[in-house]
Amino acid sequence: MRVLALDTTTRAGSVAIVEDDRIVAERRGDPSRTHAERLPRDILSLLGDHGLGLADVDLFAVASGPGSFTGLRVGIATIQGLAFVRGRQIAAVPALEAIAQSVGRDLGNGAMLGAWMDAQRRDVFTALYRLDSHPPFNPERLIEVEGPRVGDPADTLIRWAQMADREAILFVGDGAVKHSDVIRSRHSIIEPPPLAGAIGRMAIGLARQGATMNPADVYPLYVRRSDAEIDRETRALSTRDTMVAKDTKKKS
Questions:
Q1: 40: which residues sit within 8 A by CB, 6+ positions away?
Q2: What are phi and psi of 132, to 5 degrees?
Q3: CATH fourth-level superfamily of 2-94+195-229
Q4: Cys staple from 201: which of 93, 137, 154, 155, with CB 3.0 to 4.6 Å?
Q5: Residues 147, 151, 153, 159: what is their CA dihedral angle, to the nearest 10 degrees?
Q6: pLDDT digits (tens, 9 = 90+) for 116-147
Q7: For the chain, what are the domain ranges?
């Protein structure tokens, strides 16, 4: 099975070609340009460099989030369009799981992995996993100790210290690197690898389990509400309070 995998959860992102259990090629994007400017050209360029076209892709895979709101929308829409044209299925892979799986292949069973992604506003998207005995990149390789959340790095560490019973946790991701000052010295930090290759390998595991989906059924995993949603809610509450105040004034 040949998979075309795309990650747009970060500014650079990445794209990869995976065949069965082998990463044929993986390429980071140019962070000086937006995903909208680079896609689908980055995808077609990587395929072309290996003598392939979209017709040679059996399955499309994409990071479903969390991550940049705009990046997620562009990435998912791109993969949806390509898969729809070719009549192919999509494997939607959570980015935090991909981060953990990308380094978990080199660790023993029972290891604790904390995936941290930079969420801006001094927050991090996080998830905590324990490795099981299943093969690397198998969907059941990760035991979820705490699912995807967004919050303050220091608060997350306090909460995880109780969950992990003070075990050492291996932190990975750009959020861990950015907030290394709050991660205690007893924990190790790994620079984030490109994710598209891991996403492609995880997609094959999902396909074997029959867990792929039609293009129209893929939705982003945001974890946090967008600024637009928060702004709409704030304006709605302000309007309601103004109307209540006016009504109270009339009655008095």
A1: 78, 81, 82
A2: -105, 180
A3: ATPase, nucleotide binding domain (3.30.420.40)
A4: 137
A5: -50
A6: 999 998 999 999 999 999 999 999 999 999 99
A7: 2-94+195-229, 96-190
